[in-house]
């Protein structure tokens, strides 16, 4: 056989693959309908694990890489989660209810508003221009969800004083939790639920996304809200507000600050970016993309996360000192000090270091697949 | 139909998918054989582009997401590149030849040694203990490839003086190019080729990987080496040694230094890593993994890249000042200054910012597929 002939054979296989995907899609749509009728959650970890384990085994028997088959199926399942959502969701609250989203025209407000609407709730948006009608809009609300910028949250909550129905769940979506939860507790005597969705408004699917929550008062009264998130496929993590805010300094504020400074550094030094990219293998391109990504988004959000984080100043000072220290090692050619510090960090990461190496290699390989 | 029944249908589709993959694999093996016979390169960008364009179109016609089909095919093709390599490669040098790898027992030495051996060359390894037989081992070599740590390169080249056959190509794999290329030019009067493969020894496949090169003397005499890399699927980038080293301060040294300091910072502050992970959505987990990854590897390699980079001290001082500046904005609550600097960096990234946002979102979605 010549090359062209074999290639035609490969194209034929790929076309049958497309036909199979279409067939699978139709079946997933049926799953979606049945799940909605029976009120079952989108994401069922046990089913996913069983499916993957079964196919991995069969892949091996067929002389294929089990990782290849798992990678493909996971990518296909992402599409399924998206498709399942389109069919709408079961309401976790019987008879559904009224959800008022304060700041509902923003990115996160729209995302949650759409999901509540898809789940049979009456969704009402309260934006700046609606404040004269606020009392009327908030009447009979079962959930009042505040989705405004961090630095406006406490002020907006102040304006809500006396307007939130006594039985309603008062909740917020702010990236910090100590101050907003305290403010909610102060202005509302009913159930209070602090929320921090660990994803941005560009996220199309809530399946498998993490939502941190502080059930600050009457947790039983707000359980339907959390159950609703679970129906959407989200994974819930309870946390104390102060613990949450301390963790976020690591997870968000310090990372964002370091990335911000690196971007400023690049723009000041101004290397030829296209030339840099020409020599960047996937891992370096990805690191650069993670920097560029920040500056393609809103300075407001990142600024608020950095500026409002308690403890950021102390941590940033510590980082600065450590950088100064490392620089002095480089200036003095003190490789021994570098190696010792390196070894200490390796020990601190422990087993997770190897796991992180595997995970990131995996991600880099994925990025490499798409190099042209 | 009940849920169980539909799920059995999905499992059936997935099994047929596995059978199709096995069929495709057999065809790729035929391609591999034909390509080897005809001496064609593994990676043919035009064929790949045409295949993907065709299937994207058909995906759309079938009511599927073209991105889904492209993602799946790219993942499948990665496996194909790997499989094609196993069949061996055409020799770019007629009658093949003798390749001596100095430091051939190290990670990169082994990777290149294996690839040359798979391409019909006689591969000889020259390690520390072999120096007494060096003259004999190097006799009649067509390529002498130095693959030793950065800080040993110049010294090893000194020891090779007078031992490299006059006609042989002398090449190195060091991450910096100015000093090693100058040293090669000095000890050898024949063809000199500085190389910097932009990937590590864990890379199983050279297809689509970038190799930077400096054809410092008699480029025509070393063209067969570059052609051999192309047969393996690598993408070659010519560069001047000094330009290369300046770019690498950005691409490697400063990134590694900033990541190193971030790791030291984490280990000193010592948050509960498992708790941090529990609240980390895929993007934050990936950022953390990129830090942990460094410390799961050799301090020697990273140390050498950082300590040996010309200009690292000047750049690190600049970064430090910029961090100090940003910290003072946070201390003083000067959000306006933060926003202005942010806007300047956004402008500097230009169109690439949006591209980086798309690329990284894509990568994050892939990581999210694998969340359990």
- Tell me the span between the first and last alpha carbons of chain A: 28 Å
SSE pattern of chain A, N- to C-terminal: HHHEHEHEHEHEEHEHHHHHHH
Q: What form of chain A results from the Cα inertia axes? A: globular
Which structural class matches the secondary elements of chain A? alpha/beta
Strand content of chain A: 5-15%
Oligomer class: homodimer
Radius of gyration of chain A: 25 Å
Helix proportion of residues of chain A, in percent?
Answer: 55-70%
* Largest interface by Cβ-Cβ < 8 Å: A-B, 157 and 157 residues
What's the number of helices of chain A? 15
Main sheet of chain A? 7 strands, mixed
Briefly say what this structure is.
Chain A has helices spanning 3-38, 45-61, 66-86, 107-118, 134-138, 150-160, 178-187, 223-231, 241-269, 273-278, 282-295, 299-308, 312-332, 335-349, 351-369, and strands spanning 98-102, 122-126, 143-146, 169-172, 192-197, 210-217, 235-238.
Structure commentary:
2 copies of one chain form a homodimer. Chain A has 372 residues and is α/β, with parallel strands linked by helices. Helix content of chain A is 63%, strand content 10%. The first copy, chain A, contains 15 helices and 7 strands. In chain A, helix 6 runs parallel beside helix 7 and helix 9 packs across helix 11. Chain A is globular. The relative contact order of chain A is 0.07.
